[in-house]
From TrEMBL:
It comes from the Bacteria. It comes from Pseudorhizobium tarimense. InterPro entries: Pyridox_Oxase_N (IPR011576), Split_barrel_FMN-bd (IPR012349). Residues 12-130 form the Pyridoxamine 5'-phosphate oxidase N-terminal domain. This is Pyridoxine 5'-phosphate oxidase superfamily flavin-nucleotide-binding protein.
Amino acid sequence: MNELGSKRPKINPAFRTDVQNSVLCWLATVGADGTPNVTPKELFCCHGDDRIVVADIASTISVRNIINHPKVCVSFVDVFRQRGFKIVGSASIVAPEEVEFAQLGAELLRMAGGDFPIRHVISIGIERVSRIWAPSYSLFPERTEQERMQSAYSAYGVTPIER
Ligand SMILES: Cc1cc2nc3c(=O)[nH]c(=O)nc-3n(C[C@H](O)[C@H](O)[C@H](O)COP(=O)(O)O)c2cc1C
């Protein structure tokens, strides 16, 4: 992400890759009384070069919070490469009857494959971005990506399938 000299950070290839390799994102919102709320969302993707979209399938509290208070924080990590990003942004709720829904929701609808009805698109304009690294990146900087992935497979009891 290019943060310098730009009010709105732009999505770069590293960000896009980590979004694609993250099974879930965690969407944090704030309730009217200031109560924090954070829940996982599987259906999320980049939209254009400055926006993340998330499918509201069953996210009643997140949607209600955003309507009252649009500031959100989203984090996601590629658990095998042990890295990801955190963004802060302003979210809006887009209903299916609104004109932007088709364009904003196209990729989410493709990902949902008809199995999961999307009630709204949660559209998040990215305002700030920061990297998330596992501590092993600073503790063991000499490790290769392959070694990090092997270590994660072993920690999580995962056997990768050759593709
Ligand atoms: C693995 C997993 C993936 C999920 N993906 C989504 C999703 O993409 N969209 C969604 O609306 N809810 C998703 N959920 C369900 C919400 O996290 C869940 O309904 C939650 O209670 C909603 O909380 P909220 O009302 O505070 O947003 C997922 C849950 C799990 C466990």
